[in-house]
Amino acid sequence: MNTIADKDYAAEAAVCQRHVDSLVATHTGIRGAVIATTDGFEIAAHVDSSVSVAKLAAMVSSLSALSEAVSRESKIGSSRDLMIDAESGRLLLVDASTGARKRVLAVLCDNRETLGQALWAVRSCREAILRELEGH
User: Fold this and answer.
1) Is the pTM of this model over 0.85?
2) Domains recognised in the chain with CATH numbers
């Protein structure tokens, strides 16, 4: 049975998928992206077949929760972004929530993409998603 919630989720997923696809297509240093719920489920993804979207979504959710807990405990306010700098690239996590709908955008970058370029691209993608989902 199709409910309003199912239709809302499908519309949300379609918006997110379109923006994730565009992000990966327009930035050669961005290898993939996943938008996940904060409880670890995929909403949209564009990643190489060697990456497990389900596992990545679950881990992104956990990292986001840890980042939020550390930020609160450190008294620096609410966590917005998290970066993991690794040998062959970076993983950027940014909050992409609207109202009660909590989401995390995780982006995999290789070393061709500078940190500044990656942050600009990811934050621009997030803002475009939020504008469209909020109807502005």
Assistant:
1) yes
2) 4-134 (3.30.450.30)
